[in-house]
Design a protein that fits this description.
The complex is a heterodimer of chains A (390) and B (166). With 390 residues, chain A is α+β, with helices and mostly antiparallel strands. Chain A folds into two domains: 245 residues, Creatine Kinase, Chain A, domain 2, CATH 3.30.590; 119 residues, no CATH class. Chain A contains 15 helices and ten strands. In chain A, a hairpin with a 5-residue loop joins strand 4 and strand 5. With 166 residues, chain B is mainly alpha-helical. In chain B, helix 2 packs parallel to helix 5 and helix 6 packs antiparallel against helix 7. The chains are: A alpha+beta (390), B mainly alpha (166). At the A-B interface, helix 5, strand 6 and strand 7 of A face helix 5 and helix 6 of B. The structure holds zinc ion (2 copies). The site of one zinc ion (ZN) has 8 residues of chain B, from helix 1. The site of one zinc ion has 8 residues of chain B, from helix 1.
């Protein structure tokens, strides 16, 4: 069964490659398109929705990019299978709730996924590892051009591509990057950064958790507006802002190493101890501890070989991924136990954080001893970190 | 009864939240126009989608509810409920109410990005036809009938292509 193959093979975008992959986990670009005249999925009757699906699906399957694709009708997927796809960002939560008349087509590498009859008739998404917004845009734009040769997309010379929600009209494009910024969170600069990014019309939100609570120090930055700015302009604007956030994050990490090394070492030691020795772990705790382990890889506390294991654990400890190997639905305690076991096993070979090595390297770089740095803590992390963001 | 003129029957009911207190104002059609509340969907949706603080919502009585999309049967009431439109033709049907909302929501009001290749060709042909037509008029005025005939043939071919949508 096709879905089994997808579930057992991890997505390409999880490989931890691409520029700035230590901070930018992934880059995504999605385009929304609709067939001219046909009622949008939310307003269409079941027969109309099915007719649209039957018109679009063969065209999508015939794309050169989809030569080895998986084409899945929503009603053929179990709730758990859909949830796995949601956790991998291959379908949206909204799409997971769909049944007859909706489908998803994705390539084998899981870098391209096309939802049919989500909120719009077509939601096409390209996803890449690291900071690769332009590459992601090129890929999905090519698919759009190929499809428009055989499908009549709703387009208005003034308003551009017409979408079910007026907030997507124009380019129908949403560009987003997922950033891992523990440095900004630990140094309490994250709110300033979020405010600065919001001010220039981009949205920032935690990837997991509700409201302001951001688990795993993972944030998503995306464009808010789609009308009045060309695609390339939107992509470039995001690229620039993300490069600045990366710089702030790198500075924050250096400041932590040089001025607050004891706090940082405490986080490293505790997260290592719990990850290696816990027998029950909630997904929230797992995300936060894995974030510290990932930071540990970036800063050289752990050998490079461990990075892949840590990156994979972010996905493998998500509720649906955790249960995909089980025959029946697991109770909450069973999930927490299983999560802890998987983490212990995967990190079995991970040595203790190399505190001495990291402190020596930091001292050499800074040209001063870390003890000296610790005394300057009162000054707080760089106030000027915000400059240049606007 | 209208709160402003105290004579006409109220058909527009406006709920406005000011400093956390809900205020209700009932208006007749004439007074609502005068107060600039002619665009009820614009109000409600902009607030809904942009999450702006000044929550204003307008309810219209069934008799006052006007537009319905001829293509898909979608109504303003539905739009207010879901914030989504019914079909691509709805953008024309509800263009009046949408205009203000889009302005508040986006960077601009005109699409400046990608154009489908097929439409790009049609838009280019439109421009060409307009150019040739003005050339034709000039040729007629200058009594250059041979040139005029050639231009007319050219325009006819382009127009035929345009009709065929090629
Ligand atoms: Zn009145
Ligand atoms: Zn309509």
């Amino acid at each position: 069964m096709a879905i089994r193959n997808i579930l057992n093979k991890s997505s390409d975008w999880l490989k931890g490659e691409g520029p700035h992959h230590d901070i930018v986990v992934s880059s995504r670009v999605r385009l929304a398109r609709n067939l001219a005249g046909a009622p949008f999925p939310g307003w269409a009757k079941k027969a109309e929705r099915t007719a649209v699906l039957e018109r679009i699906r063969p065209r999508v399957e015939a794309l050169p990019e989809m030569g080895d694709a998986y084409s899945l009708a929503c009603q053929d997927l179990t709730a758990l299978e859909k949830q796995v796809l949601v956790e991998r960002h291959l379908i949206s939560r909204e799409h997971a709730a769909k049944g007859v008349g909706s489908a998803v087509v994705m390539n084998r590498r899981q870098s391209l996924s096309i939802m049919i009859n989500e909120e719009d008739h077509l939601r096409m998404q390209s996803i890449r590892s690291g900071l690769q917004l332009r590459a992601a845009f090129r890929a999905v734009n090519k698919v759009d051009t190929e499809l428009e040769a055989s499908l009549d997309f709703a387009f208005d010379p003034d308003l551009g591509y017409l979408t079910a929600c007026p907030s997507n009209v124009g380019t129908g494009m949403r560009v987003s990057a997922m950033l891992h910024v523990p440095g900004l969170v630990l140094s309490e600069q994250i709110n300033q950064v979020i405010q600065a990014v919001n001010k220039i019309g981009l949205a920032v939100r935690g990837l997991y958790g509700e409201g302001t609570e951001a688990l795993g120090n993972l944030f998503q930055i995306s464009n808010q507006t789609t009308l009045g700015e060309a695609e390339e302009g939107i992509v470039d604007r995001l690229q620039k802002v993300i490069l600045q956030v990366i710089e702030h994050e790198q500075n924050a990490r250096q400041t932590l190493l040089q001025r607050r090394s004891n706090t940082l070492l405490d986080h490293m030691g505790r997260s290592y101890g719990i990850l290696k020795h816990a027998y029950s772990m909630h997904s929230k705790e797992a995300l936060n501890l894995l974030s510290l382990a990932k930071l540990g890889c970036d800063l050289g506390f752990y050998p490079e070989e461990q990075r892949h294991a840590v990156d994979e654990l972010f996905m493998e400890t998500q509720p649906a991924h955790l249960q995909k190997g089980s025959q029946q639905k697991l109770a909450a305690e069973e999930r927490d136990a299983l999560r802890a076991t998987i983490i212990r096993q995967k990190l079995a070979a991970c040595p203790e954080p190399d505190v001495v090595g990291v402190l020596e390297r930091t001292a050499k770089q800074a040209g001063s001893s870390p003890e000296e740095g610790e005394k300057k803590q009162g000054e707080g992390p760089g106030e000027s970190a915000q400059e240049g963001l606007i | 009864m209208c709160d402003v003129c105290q004579t006409e029957t109220a058909t527009v009911f406006l709920t406005q939240i000011v400093d956390g207190n809900m205020q209700k104002v009932n208006l007749c059609e004439g007074c609502s126009k005068e107060k600039g509340v002619t665009d009820p969907t614009g109000f409600a949706l902009a607030d809904l989608l942009l999450g702006m603080g000044a929550a204003q919502s307008v309810e219209r009585t069934a008799s006052a509810t006007g537009q319905r999309c001829a293509n898909c049967g979608f109504t303003e009431a539905e739009f207010k409920k879901t914030g989504r439109l019914g079909c691509s033709a709805c953008y024309r049907t509800f263009s009046e109410g949408l205009g203000g909302m889009l302005r508040g929501m986006h960077k601009g009001v005109r699409h400046t990005g990608k154009i489908p290749e097929r439409l790009e060709k049609m838009l280019a042909r439109d421009t060409e036809i307009r150019g040739l037509t003005s050339d034709l008029r000039r040729a007629v005025v200058e009594e250059q009938y041979e040139t005029a005939a050639a231009l007319r043939d050219k325009i006819r071919i382009l127009e035929a292509d345009q009709e065929a949508g090629e």
